Structures are given as C-alpha cells and as structure tokens.
C-alpha cells in the first residue's frame, strides 16, 4: 500500500515526511498491566524513513485540507461519514472517513471527491 524509499527511485523524487518532519522516531507513553513507560515509535506515514514520495506528499496535503474543511464546518467524523455515505449512496464508515483525513489511502481521487463534496455542502 505504501511506497517506501528505495534504490529504484532517485532521491529527488522524495520529500521530507510531512507527518514526522523527517524526525523518523517519536516517543509515546505506553500503558499496560505493569504500569506506564515511555517507548520509541516509528512514523506511521513514512514508516521510519523520514521521506515520502511526491505523490504521498500530495495525498497528505489533500487529506489535511479535507480534515480542516470538516472541522471548519463543525462536523464530527460520524456526521461527515454519514452524510457522505448518503451522497455516495454507499456506506462510508467512520474508519474509512478517518483514513481519508489522515492520508491512509492511495486514492487521491476519493480524497478530492470528498473534499469537493464538503466544499459544496450547504
């Protein structure tokens, strides 16, 4: 699903990851039965490479715009997914809507369609 940095593509085709800003690793608080501890995490978007393709960067920018539009309209993820489902005449779950907003899809057309729908929503 995700395209990682490889030797097959020149480095010019990649940009710094917009999610982790190239930091690659982060820190999170993990809670479990033995208590809480700090743990190192890897960026979910670039999978720890610190770089993404130009295409994935455009997906990130479009999905961020989609989320900003929804928030500006004071809609919850549930409201947006339910209304978009009615528009599409197909079920769009909250999980699928969230995936669109967080760039966890390679379908730029679907993100653009949802963004256009939200922009034209009255």
Characterize the structure shown:
With 122 residues, the protein is of the alpha+beta class. The protein has one domain. Helices cover 43% and strands 18% of the residues. It has a two-stranded antiparallel sheet. A two-stranded antiparallel ribbon has the order 2-3. Helix 2 crosses helix 3. It is globular. The N and C termini lie far apart (34 Å).
Number of helices: 4
- Sheet with most strands: 2 strands, antiparallel
| Rg result | 17 Å
| Structure classification | alpha+beta
Q: Shape, please?
A: globular
What percent of residues adopt helix (DSSP H or I)? Answer: 40-55%
Tally of distinct domains: 1
**Low-pLDDT runs:** 1-6
Mean pLDDT over the residues: 84
Quick take:
The protein has 122 residues and is an alpha+beta fold. The chain contains four helices and four strands.
